[in-house]
Amino acid sequence: MLSTMQDVPLTVGRILAHGSTIHGRSTVTTWDGQKAVPRSFAEVGARAAQLAHALRDELGVTGDQRVATLMWNNTEHQEAYLAIPSMGAVLHTLNLRLPPQQLAFIINHAADHTILVNSSLLPLLAPLLPQLRPTLRHIVLVGDAGDAAAAQLDGFAGTVHHYEELIADRPTSFPFPMDLDERSAAALCYTSGTTGDPKGVAYSHRSMYLHCMQVVSAESFAFTDADLILPVVPMFHVNAWGIPYAAFMVGASLLMPDRYLQPQPLATMITAERPTFSAAVPTIWTGLLGELDANPGRYDVSTLRRVVIGGSACPPSLMKAFEERHGITLIHAWGMTETSPLGSVSLPPGGLSAEEAWPYRLTQGRFPASVQVRVIGPDGTPMPHDGSSAGEIEVRGPWIAAAYYGGAGNPPELGEKFSPDGWLRTGDVGTVSEDGYLTLTDRSKDVIKSGGEWISSVELENELMAHPDVLEAAVVAVPDERWGERPLATVVLRPGAQAGFAELRAFLAGRIAHWQLPERWSVVESVPKTSVGKFDKKVIRREYAEGALDVTVLGKDTTA
Ligand code: ADP
Questions:
Q1: Catalytic residue list contains 338
Q2: What percent of the chain has pLDDT over 90?
Q3: Which residues line ligand 1 at a C-beta cut-off of 6 Å?
Q4: Which of 75, 246, 342, 394 pairs as cysteine with 423 (C-beta 3.0–4.6 A)?
Q5: What is the 3-state secondary structure of 237-282?
Q6: Cβ-count burial of 21 within 10 angstroms (0-12 exposed, 13-18 middle, 19+ buried)?
Q7: The pLDDT of residue 559 is above 50
Q8: From the CA of 337, how far away is ligand 1's center (Å)?
């Protein structure tokens, strides 16, 4: 029998309506390098309505046309986040760190109708114009754009607008449709495409709404209207992990860092504005920790109640350092573009002492009720959840992608990422414990297979980064005549550090199995990073293959 319950579509418009009224006094604040400029949720809601009017009435956006943003984390971006999906159009966030070819590819693939661009990012967009399809009709400049800046768009065949002029004097309410099909696309985000062309994931209103409820919940980030959230994770990186919507759902205020993402301005902003929560990839927190440690007493970051770290494995040494030296709890979370992104969160089971909780906190965490997980072994069959049987992690759930966006007018693309029985193959390798905790050892394309055994590059990196002289360490597989593959350790040393390779190797020797010890070592100035700040191991492998790395070989006999 059918239920007797109301069938109310779960839409972004509902989040906008709720946040801008019930939580109208909460604020979105953008840091301008010196001070914070706040705007209330009520004003943001009013301006989102004005933007929707401008897009529909002036720019002619209709139906599910794509409206893109090439923007930093700031208040205007939040307005676009709310207005575009709420009016029924599709928000396409452009990753400003993508290589130019890929940026042009995704704008064309999505057939973006309009792009909102921060003026400071025009030098990224302007050179792409000759490659862009005529489906792009409008460019809206956000923020101060001098004549010289705007002149960069001189060759654009469409129309150029200025955000504030465009929305000024328009009605501050908009008839946002509340009966949108909740399964229709609300936002489009492309993977950062470390291999091949980026792939588009089209989130639905329903998937975003449900994801948002999970983000705010106590088993994830536990947001309330007493929070001031600092999303350092960019709004072009998987919707800033859902934080902009989650904040509007519960009335948590937002502190937007705009382009001030370097350690020193971040530490200054945190000291001045006193956020309670933040989220970013490990690279950012490593940088911030260095700044705090180098300047004792200059900053006060103690208001940060919790900090979520995700996108790459969090080195335990980083977690420990923040906790012991700065009293900040780092929470490890796992996800990917295809999972909206929240998958698992490493909150320990209740009732444990700090010491008992620690091993749980180092894992990638537990999945919420809505997300199922299975571990698929090398022979394609499911492995037990026993904490030791490793395999590829597959997930399923209402905010997990079932296919990639095929481009305007094309059917969705299925591919090997999606299993015939409806699971997402994450490409991550790891184990799940009996009580549901995920531990990742590698991405499938990064595993090191030495003499038929897997070596976890993540484990080696974590152990290396626990050495006081090591700032960052990335370990990759390199071909080896005898063993098939062996690990190559590339390390970034702290300024003034003395440790040599022999010492680092001896340090590892006490912590990992003997046969896993790398023989090949290289000191690098920095680890190459992807567009979202993760270690780019593909580049390290290529540099090694081309002989571009200065490699020292130690203890070769130990591999025998
Ligand atoms: P891309 O695939 O282009 O790097 P995503 O942001 O979608 O972009 O990356 C998702 C991947 O990031 C995951 O499949 C996983 O390999 C890695 N990842 C995310 N969170 C974690 C984490 N907490 N620990 C280890 N790896 C992580």
A1: yes
A2: 85
A3: 191-192, 194, 238, 310-313, 332-337, 364, 426-428, 440, 443, 530, 532, 534
A4: 394
A5: CHHHHHHHHHHHHHCCEEEECECCCCHHHHHHHHHHHCCCEEEECH
A6: exposed
A7: no
A8: 8
pLDDT digit string, tens, across residues 186-213: 999 999 766 678 999 999 999 999 999 9
Closest-CA residue, ligand 1 atom 4, reads 192
The domain covering 370-444 belongs, at the CATH homologous superfamily level, to Luciferase; Domain 3 (2.30.38.10)
pLDDT value at position 558?
44
| CATH superfamily, domain at 446-559 | ANL, C-terminal domain (3.30.300.30)
Per the model's pLDDT, the better-predicted residue between 170 and 36 turns out to be: 170
539-556 average pLDDT score: 90
Question: Which of ligand 1's atoms lies nearest the C-alpha of 364?
Answer: 23
d(CA 309, CA 325): 17
pTM as predicted: 0.90
Whether 394 is catalytic:
no
Instruction: Give CA 189 to chain center in angstroms.
Output: 11
pLDDT at 252 (0 to 100): 98
The verdict on domain 7-205 having CATH code 3.10.180.10 is: no
Ligand 1 centroid–CA 26 distance in Å is 32
Name the residue of 417, 428, 443 whose CB sits within 8 Å of the most ligand 1 atoms, as the mutation to test its pocket: 428
Judge whether 556 counts as a catalytic residue: no
Other Cβ atoms less than 10 A from the Cβ of 459: the count is: 18
Look up residue 388 and give its DSSP letter: S
Separation of CA 312 and ligand 1 centre (Å): 5
